[in-house]
Specification:
With about 350 residues, this protein is of the alpha+beta class. It has two domains: about 90 residues; about 190 residues, 2-Layer Sandwich (BirA Bifunctional Protein, domain 2). Helix content is about 40%, strand content about 20%. Strands 1-4-5-9-8-7-6 form a seven-stranded mixed beta sheet, sandwiched between helices. It has a two-stranded antiparallel ribbon with strand order 2-3. The chain binds 3,4-dihydroxyphenylalanine. 3,4-dihydroxyphenylalanine (DAH) binds next to β8 and β9.
């Protein structure tokens, strides 16, 4: 290798260094020329070992100068490419502080969920505990223990989905009342519970009916509980939900698991009690069934009816929501129409 060869090698290296577009390419160039073993320039050092005298001194000087130039050029290019990379990052991360902020839509509870929550709040303040029950029930808890043996005519209004092939008669619960039995069978009086949940029935859809709907069951069993306590509780709850001005009436009714039985109606907010499509022309909309727990039901639950008495009720939060928000039709609550839901 002559000094000229070495210079030609160095200038090729300088060209390649200048042409490296990123740090990876520059590293390849560095290795090609300057690798400790086998680099095109570094390996000239080995050749020097075989020379002697002035030839060795001459080539040695050329070698040191070529090596120095290439090392400097590599270092310089490295700084440039590092700066470019950092600058590129800044460009990517550039933030326009004057850009308008994205408006984040905040969700909220469905009107039925909110109504259930409010009913829970009202009863929690009265000392009740909210419990959940299974949506799939057996015939025993949904009907028999509640004084509705097979063939009882009250079952007609409670047709539902049946799980075929099940020996114990599994079905989709038709009301939340079975949780009265499950709670009493699992504990000892006094009981003060409410049970919010979903139920299903073979009801024809109309402005006050949907085959799947919600109920909030209630049960209060203690010593000396009377119809007066039931009436006072229902009137208090109606005032809390609808305000003192709204018309509320109690009328006698029939349920196999209560004696006596009552139903509560609220004045229709669409027609103000005159009668319209929403209230089936009656001016009133039923929101709950209730009564004093039948002694046979207490006995079925292992509670002594001579020592304890109680009342129970089952209210419909879907209808209550429709009444509070003046909706003409409960079915609107299940349409998931954002134009309606965004109103609440
Ligand atoms: N389970 C009844 C229904 O679904 C409502 C009801 C009536 C619940 C009287 C009760 C009650 O707890 O005592 O129509």
């Amino acid at each position: 290798m002559t000094g000229d060869d070495l210079q030609a090698l160095a200038s090729r290296a300088l060209e390649e260094i200048a042409g490296a577009v990123d740090l990876d390419q520059l590293e390849l160039v560095r290795r090609r020329y300057m690798a400790r073993h086998g680099g095109l320039i570094t390996s000239v050092a080995a050749e020097l070992g075989g020379l002697s005298g002035p030839a060795r001194a001459l080539l040695g000087r050329e070698f040191n100068s070529a090596k120095g130039t290439v090392v400097d050029a590599l270092a310089e290019r490295q700084v440039t490419l590092e700066e470019e990379r950092a600058g590129g990052g800044l460009a990517d991360e550039w933030l326009d502080l004057s850009h308008p902020v994205h408006h984040l839509e905040r969700g909220h509870q469905h009107p039925v969920a909110r109504t259930i929550r409010e009913i829970e709040d009202i009863f929690t303040r009265l000392g009740y505990t909210s419990v959940a029950g299974p949506e799939i029930e057996d015939d025993l808890h949904n009907f028999e223990l509640l004084n509705m043996p097979p063939e009882h005519p009250a079952r007609d209004a409670h047709d539902t989905f049946y799980l075929s092939g099940a020996a114990v008669g599994w079905l989709y619960r038709t009301h939340t009342s079975p949780m009265q039995m499950r709670t009493m069978l699992a504990g000892a009086p006094p009981f003060r519970i409410i049970v919010p949940g979903k139920v299903a029935r073979r009801d024809n859809p109309d402005p006050t009916h949907n085959p799947v709907f919600h109920q909030v069951e209630g049960l209060c069993v203690d010593q000396g509980v009377t119809v007066g306590d039931l009436k006072g509780t229902l009137e208090h709850v109606a005032r809390e939900l609808f305000g003192a001005e709204r018309g509320v009436r109690l009328r006698s009714s029939y349920f196999p698991y209560t004696e006596p039985s009552l139903e509560a109606d609220v004045a229709c907010g669409i027609c103000n009690g005159i009668g319209c499509r929403s209230c089936h022309g009656k001016g009133w909309i039923e929101i709950l069934g209730s009564g004093m727990v039948h002694p046979a039901v207490l006995r079925n639950a292992g509670v002594d009816p001579d020592r304890y008495s109680g009342f129970a009720f089952g209210m419909g939060p879907d209808r209550i929501a429709a009444l509070r928000y003046s909706l003409r039709d409960v079915r609107d609550l299940y349409e998931n129409d954002m134009r309606l839901l965004e109103c609440f």
